[in-house]
Amino acid sequence: MVSMKDLPPPSPWRSLSERQAKKVDAVSAAFLSNLKYVTDRRLQKAYYLAEVWSIEERLERLSEVDFASWRHGPWSLHVRESEERLESKGVVERIIKPARGGLEVELLRVTKPSRSSALARDELEFLVEVSAALRFIDSEKLTQVAKATAPFRVTSPEARIDLDGYLETIRKRHAMLVDSPRVAALVAEAKAA
């Protein structure tokens, strides 16, 4: 008889609707346009950080992308599939270049910029800001920053990172501050000064 421990772990990936897949493509394309030559690893970390920062700054997710906690930081099958869709549409190409130590690196490059109606203006502006913040951070440091986020730290290895749960936690904290009599008193005091 097969025991539970012998069964493979459940997949961390939920399926995305066509509308959500288009949004993931739009976010990926925005990063690839703003960051120029990007590896899969760099795109994965940039997208993940954009999701976390969107939750913390805007109190909303950019998309419904799932990320899993891997040894090399957060990684998403949804983002990888987006790269492949963009490549099949001719929006992105893969370029193989020599890297340090005689190895090769596979880079993603936008071949034709695309404007997508899947992203609102404020989302595009947010992605430009995130891209500017990440532009000169190397991949190792980017991975360290992603691994240092609260959602990644509390997730078991190979499990799905609960960004929706993190969003709810942040929203509850925000609501507590907004409804706090102490905060209201401090605001009133500041206005009176």
Secondary-structure map with pairings?
Layout: H1 18-35, H2 40-58, E1 67-70, E2 73-75, H3 77-88, E3 92-98, E4 104-110, H4 121-134, H5 139-147, H6 150-153, E5 160-161, H7 163-178, H8 181-192
Antiparallel strand pairs: 1-2, 1-5, 3-4
Helix pairs in contact: 1-3, 1-4, 2-4, 2-5, 2-7
What does this structure look like?
There is one protein chain. With 193 residues, this protein is mainly alpha-helical. Helices cover 54% and strands 12% of the residues. It contains eight helices and five strands. The strands form two sheets. Strands 2-1-5 form a three-stranded antiparallel beta sheet. The chain has a two-stranded antiparallel ribbon with strand order 3-4. Strand 1 and strand 2 (73-75) form a beta hairpin. The radius of gyration is 19 Å and the shape is globular. The relative contact order is 0.17. The mean pLDDT is 90.
Give the helix level as a range of percent. 40-55%
Overall strand count? 5
Rg from Cα: 19 Å
Oligomer: single chain
Mean pLDDT reading = 90
Residue windows where pLDDT falls under 50 for at least 5 positions: none
Gap between N and C termini: 74 Å
Physical arrangement of strands within the biggest beta sheet: 2-1-5
Q: What characteristic shape results from the CA principal axes?
A: globular
Structure characteristics:
193 residues; mainly alpha; two-stranded antiparallel sheet
